[in-house]
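Page header: ASSEMBLY MODEL / two components / 732 residues total.
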Amino acid sequence: MSVLEYVANGVIYSSIIVLASIGLSLVYSIAGFANFAHGDTMTVGAYAALVTFGLVGGLGSEILGLPLGFFAALVVGIAVAAVVAVVTHRLVYEPLDAGSIGLLITSIGVAFVYRSLIRLGFGADFTEFGIQVLRPIDWLLPYGVRVTLHDVAIVLTAGVLVAALHVLLQSTDLGRKMRATADNPDLARVSGIRTRRIKLWMWVIGAGLAGAGGVFLGLYNQISPRMGFDILLVVFAAVILGGIGSVYGAMLGAFLIGLVVRMTPLLSDVGIPIGIDYAKAIAFVIMVAVLLVRPNGIAGGTES
Amino acid sequence: MSRLTDPRGHWDRLTRAERGVAGFVVALLALLFYGFVTGGFGPAYVLYLVGLVGMYVLLSFGLNVQWGYTGLINFSVAAFFGLGAYGTALLTADSSPIAGGFNPLVGLVVGLALAAVVAYVVGVPTLRLRADYLAIASLGLAEVIRALVLNERRWTNGSAGLRGIPGFFEGWPLLDRFPELMPGLRVVVVPGSPIVLQEPFWQAVLNVTLVFVFVAASYLVLRRVHRSPWGRVLRTIRADEDLAEALGKDTYAFKMQAFVLGSVIMALAGVFYAHLNLFVSPGDFEPINTFYVWIAVILGGSGSNRGAMFGGFVIIAIREGTRFLGALLPDALRFTLPGALSVLPDGLLAALAGALSLVESTYATVVGNFASTRLLAVGLLIILVMRYRPEGVLPPQRELIWTGVADDTTRADPDSGVREARGGGSDE
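Prediction written out in full:
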């Protein structure tokens, strides 16, 4: 495989990590805890989309090699992940009288509940959306890059979602309130911002993006109850690399970590005996190194 | 000594939670004993379960030192447990790709040393960080170690695991051949179903004795440590690290010592497990094992070693109880609507039938998937404990320092389940 292909693969994988890391970062900055259930929220989105896609089918026409029904399923996946997160917030996190550590431990319980319910409903095995695998795009092959239209769709959709989030954060009233709440919740509240409502929106956006990430992860790899938990560590590494609590930092960190994880095979190509099995371990080592050298991350962590 | 001379008065002085716990433990032991005398469980199996309880108690002790005393969130319990287990297994097992054939005592020392070294190496970068970073980093560490054990087949045998681990007492004088030397006993408690106590039983007796020695030794060490000035510094760090710093304590050094001590106790549990199960595999590193121990500690009461012991029993009740229930309950429920209901309108009947078939299928799913049901129970238990009893069932008694003690805004002192201070009592 060529270096270009590794880069292309990295970009695709990065788009998924970006979607997941935004939500994790939002929850960290606004709800104030490291949410270990975030990966399983992605799984929830993926399974919701799987069920929807099974129900509605292809719906005829195609965009970028993906049937319209898949996009309907994507929307449902996003919506279900958001609803599940809001319900969890209302039922579990909000009534809890605990600090960030208590919330963190609780979120592990939440993750287990999500995953066990999915396993009870769908079994523990791998499944797929059952969308036909496409041939790589022809005109890219001479450059040694094997990318399908599906991969392009993943990157483009992720780009659209991220751009929408950027507009939301920078130009809307809700976005300004969210940034204010992330910066200083008490100050935001005395300024008349209804921080409880902002928190709900934060869950909707964060979990919705995670759901989208889960759907794409399912399209890119496979769907299994453990998929979200398995990727959670990479997402944490991305968020920490970018500076925990900073949304734009998380995007940058996710992009870099995604590239690194997918370019691990290069190491064995140049003779360093570290196989693809250790891709996540490398992400972890980077994370610890960042924590040591720049605990605020590469983006500084002051903006949000 | 009050519990011997005045059992009634002792019982009256217990809190409600303590009575409940005592009742639970007695009921569980009674159930095991009932299964034992009626032959429902094999005698060796009952003792195997008791050994597992001991193992979880040890693990909970280890986590208690880190989380309960010092406030360190360690999500790599399974990793240190696995390091202890693999440390001894690699040195003693027949199928070991490295050495093999050493005395289990050598394995014990090496397993503990391995865990201590890894704990130190991990602690250097992570213990200076905030608590939630340690949580993430330690979970990552656990996954890295699991990946190493799975993939480095040359050293660890990979996913096949290690077989042929000897019992802990192999090569010891006398104890080595103790199970063979003991006579086969036939005990008739219930007429018609005699219990035969043979070699496996005596082997299990040895194992239980071993874990009892481990638990007792750790308990005594930890109680001493907890009451010492060193233990007070740890609890101060948990309550308010800045305060400890301001008092001139090198909190990093204290946290490191607590982290290593806790990890070594976890590895001790791993060593015991390897010689109990006689087989170790990368599955022992699964994160779920970490969270079993977390449940034991937060349910029992963070910082309380009595609570940790109770937690060990609860974990076995969950782990084996779901398996036991699964075997006991019928695979499927069948409902039939009584004929008298046919007077109801058809729509309602159809709805009822639909609801019943939903109940039937849910039941079949839950009973048919113990692993998932267990995971669900674990998750729900974490959420419920954190919501309704974050201080645990048996919080530490007569604690001078607790989380938030130096902080006026958050009153987090354990105001439930704590006895009034009384003279002459134990503070454990």
